[in-house]
Give the backbone structure.
Amino acid sequence: MALKVDLNADMGEGIGNDAALLSIVTSANVACGFHAGSLTTMRETMAEALRSGVGLGAHPGYDDKPNFGRTRMRLSAEELGALTAYQLGAAIGVAKSLGGRVRHLKLHGALANMASEEPEIARACYEAALKVQPDIVLMVIAATAQEAVARDLGADWAGEIFADRAYNDDATLVDRSQEGAVLHDPALITERILRMLDEGAIIAQSGKRIPCKIDTICLHGDTKEAVEIAASLRVGLTAQGVSLARL
């Protein structure tokens, strides 16, 4: 079992449970105003994260507030790069104004899912991010095209698994429209994550094991039970001797 992992959550999305999550997690993926949030919420979330000793990450997505960044859009490589650079640049500027530093980047929603399936999308986003901040840690969906591109670029990257989402056999996430795609039971989620860490593998919905490097565990801030899931995970991980530390 891994001796140290990061526990991250998506924040600044207007859900209202950020303060509670920041007392539990070690890294925050802060919305950059496109799929959710605004410069004001970004600043407020980052300020609270810094007060809590939680690591800062930029969480860019498609310009799609009506559907929370979950609408699949077709953009050119240039447009994807500009989308990523703009949001990361804003996050870096806000963090710097607060005396903090953006350490990692994690794509959101449909943009993330498409980048996990299509390396061209991952490459456009990651190359743009690395031009803005060459030492940025790319938080990638483990064992997908995201990881393959990060490796190929020689970037610093962290392999991410999801606590509250079900997996397909290719390590991509089961579409939210499918039954069982989102998991809600904190106890079962904790047990499942401990198994993944013990085996060093993603456990797909079918039961298939997909070996991968696990550096960070994600839970979605907009999941109704997010705080309960985070608390259960923290207790379960520490009880098994797993230490939690930000990226």
Observations:
- Residues 77-97 form the longest helix (21 residues).
